[in-house]
């Protein structure tokens, strides 16, 4: 699949620019086992890069023009490095312009590039196709012009691009997972310090299965930014009552309960979710290490219920998918994944039961919503990288 993607992007580059590309880069999408909506709350997350990629074919050109070809959309965009950079109506262009803006702000010197790209990360499915584009581009520019950026800086540049040119006030999880991904490892990331450690993603007889609801509710950006504002307000109130508290991780459930009246119902429920979720990630890591998959799965269901009822970022379609598998003896854990309001659910399913489940849930989903469900059997893969012939073997 990876090889085919590389071949197709290479061919499209040749067609557009009448030459072979000098470089190929691959930048993966991500899953998250647990730790949702806590990256911007100084919590812990447990994501991993997956074997779905944005692939870039790139060559330097001596002029100041950077020319993009978005193969999947059959759209082109060019700009001059001396142009003033502003967000544009074509969303995909903003991922690049946002990164470039960050690089220019840091004073880096670059010449033009010719770029063709294509993606097997489904767009708008909550698998971080945008982070994959941002980080892949930043990684490529860093390599080609020898800018000397660390992986952490690349992830932070991607995140800043999202804030400034895309308008989503996201945390660091997606970009970090895309850049730092390792084959068969999940990353336990401390989003307060950016310290991280890898854990074996060996789920024994269980496989990871993503169910793509194919819905993307339009309030994703506003809903996401609203949640950020709500928890910020909540934390301010909590800090007044507990002056020693700096972040959500310094709080426990009892402390949140005790100031419920001051927080108000909505903000109370948002804060309660965050405090619970931070603890759940720590418990999930222990369960993963101890191969206690029943416990891990139970934590995933609890996360879903918190996201749906207290954080209110799920939707009817995703709730349906999680409820469908909740009492299935072959599904040990399931929950909505990513920013929410649509996208995918992540499921831990007995390997032997995966195909049967896809058929059953697909049928039920079609009956209920008249939407064709898409299922992805994903593998945990390496982060953003330059692709060379040796990868092809
Ligand atoms: C989106 C954001 F981009 C991430 O930073 C994270 O907050 C996630 O939603 C929710 O956990 O993917």
Automatic annotation (TrEMBL):
According to the entry, every stretch annotated as the GHMP kinase N-terminal domain falls at 94-182
Report any Pfam family annotated for this entry: GHMP_kinases_C
Keyword set, alphabetical order: ATP-binding, Carbohydrate metabolism, Cytoplasm, Galactose metabolism, Kinase, Magnesium, Metal-binding, Nucleotide-binding, Transferase
Domain Galactokinase N-terminal: residue ranges: 12-60
Alphabetized SUPFAM superfamilies for the sequence? GHMP Kinase, C-terminal domain, Ribosomal protein S5 domain 2-like
Q: Which residues form the GHMP kinase C-terminal domain?
A: 285-366
PANTHER family given in the database record? GALACTOKINASE-RELATED, MEVALONATE KINASE/GALACTOKINASE
Q: Which family does it belong to?
A: Belongs to the GHMP kinase family. GalK subfamily.
Question: Which protein are we looking at?
Answer: Galactokinase
């Amino acid at each position: 699949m990876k090889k085919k993607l590389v071949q197709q992007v290479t061919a499209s580059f040749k067609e557009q620019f009448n030459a072979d590309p000098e470089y190929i880069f691959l930048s993966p999408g991500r899953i998250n086992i647990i730790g949702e909506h806590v990256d911007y709350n100084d919590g812990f997350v447990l994501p991993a890069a997956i074997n779905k990629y944005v692939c870039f074919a790139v060559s330097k050109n001596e002029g100041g023009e950077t020319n993009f070809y978005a193969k999947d959309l059959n759209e082109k965009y060019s700009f001059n490095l001396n142009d003033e950079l502003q967000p544009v109506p074509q969303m995909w262009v903003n991922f690049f312009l946002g990164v470039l803006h960050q690089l220019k702000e840091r004073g880096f010197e670059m010449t033009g590039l010719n770029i063709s790209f294509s993606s097997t990360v489904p767009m708008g499915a909550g698998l971080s196709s945008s982070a994959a584009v941002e980080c892949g581009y930043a990684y490529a520019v860093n390599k080609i012009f020898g800018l000397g950026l660390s992986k952490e800086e690349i992830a932070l540049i991607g995140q800043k691009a999202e804030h400034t040119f895309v308008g989503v006030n996201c945390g660091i999880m997606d970009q970090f997972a895309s850049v730092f991904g390792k084959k068969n490892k999940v990353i336990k990331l401390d989003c307060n310090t950016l310290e991280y450690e890898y854990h074996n993603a060996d789920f024994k007889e269980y496989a990871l299965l993503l169910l793509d609801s194919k819905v993307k509710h339009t309030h994703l950006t506003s809903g996401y930014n609203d949640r950020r504002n709500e928890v910020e307000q909540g934390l301010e109130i909590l800090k007044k009552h507990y002056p020693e508290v700096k972040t959500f991780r310094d709080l426990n459930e009892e402390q949140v309960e005790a100031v419920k009246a001051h927080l108000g119902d909505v903000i109370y429920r948002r804060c309660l979710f965050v405090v619970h979720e931070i603890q759940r990630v720590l418990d999930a890591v222990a369960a993963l290490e101890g191969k206690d998959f029943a416990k891990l799965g139970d934590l995933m269901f609890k996360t879903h219920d918190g996201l749906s009822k207290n954080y209110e970022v799920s939707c009817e379609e995703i709730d349906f998918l999680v409820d469908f598998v909740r009492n299935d003896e072959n599904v040990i854990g399931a929950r909505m994944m990513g920013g929410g309001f649509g996208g995918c659910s992540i499921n831990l399913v007995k390997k032997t039961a995966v195909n049967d489940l896809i058929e059953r849930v697909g049928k039920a989903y079609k009956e209920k919503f008249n939407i064709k469900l898409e299922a992805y059997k994903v593998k945990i893969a390496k982060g953003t990288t330059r692709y060379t012939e040796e990868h092809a073997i």
